[in-house]
Specification:
This protein is of the alpha/beta class. The chain has a single domain (about 5-245), classed as TIM Barrel (Alpha-Beta Barrel), CATH 3.20.20.70. Helices cover about 35% and strands about 30% of the residues. It contains ten helices and twelve strands. The chain is globular and about 45 Å long. The mean pLDDT is about 90.
């Protein structure tokens, strides 16, 4: 059985790590390089870097910051935000990213996933799906949660897997930053519907929230931000708790 992964997320705005609630009300959470080094030392399995305003500001990801972080860590590193082309991906990989995450650009042009998977390999492509609950249904949203689409989250996740995405990073906007638990039912639906790993994101606030999303939600990994940034939960403490609850993790 594959071990489950714990992944801290650095949401970057103006070169600083930030965190909000439901994608808004952002507050400063520290220096991204210092946080990346700490998470590496604390036993994080991977690290995700999301340049959260790159798409809305119509610019590319902060390449120098990606390079600076990559020089200080030795765990897999996923980068997202403002990625629109194979050239964008190539530049980030050349500067230390191991994987890239695409959301808005894939919604605008689904064949981008096919092209990126063919050129760089599915193992490199993380399809980010931001989900919002509207009219009793989960829909995909883009541009950092600002723009709603008519895409059904489950059907879109299946399409992404079919086009060659290697993983799905599933974030519930309803749960994001609330610390009231992950969207377990949605995560379970997506996990059962696709043949690729699903990373659950949004809502982690207690040790048992992680247990439930990895067990009941069927997630392959759980991602969180503020609880790690502000040391509300230590990664080593979380992994020990997961292990004690029968979940295989890298200790």
């Amino acid at each position: 059985m594959l071990t489950k992964r714990i992944i801290p997320c650095l949401d970057i705005k103006d070169g600083r790590t930030v965190k909000g609630i439901n994608f808004v009300e952002l507050r400063d959470a520290g220096d991204p390089i210092e946080l990346a080094v700490r998470y590496c030392d604390e036993g994080a399995d991977e690290l995700v870097f999301l340049d959260i305003t790159a798409t809305t500001e119509n610019r590319k990801t902060l390449v120098k910051l990606v390079r600076d972080i990559a020089m200080h860590i030795n765990i897999p590193f996923t980068v997202g935000g403002g990625i629109r082309s194979a050239d964008d991906v190539r530049l980030l990989l050349e500067n230390g990213a191991d994987k890239i995450s695409v959301n808005t650009a894939a919604v605008n042009n689904p064949s981008l996933i096919d092209r990126l998977a063919a050129e760089f390999g599915s193992q490199c492509i993380v399809a980010a799906v931001d989900a919002k609950y509207l009219n009793d249904k989960w829909y995909v949203v883009t541009h950092g949660g600002r723009n709603a689409t008519q895409l059904d989250v489950l059907e879109w996740s299946k399409e992404l897997a079919g086009r060659g995405a290697g993983e799905i990073l599933l974030t519930s906007m309803e749960n994001d930053g609330t610390k009231e638990g992950f969207a377990n039912a949605l995560t379970a639906e997506v996990s059962q519907a696709v043949p690729i790993p699903v990373i659950a994101s949004g809502g982690g606030g207690s040790l048992d929230h992680f247990v439930s999303v990895l067990k009941d939600g069927g997630a392959d990994a759980a991602l969180a931000a503020s609880i790690f940034h502000f040391r509300e939960i230590e990664i080593s403490q979380l992994k020990k708790h997961l292990h004690e609850n029968g979940i295989q993790v890298r200790l």
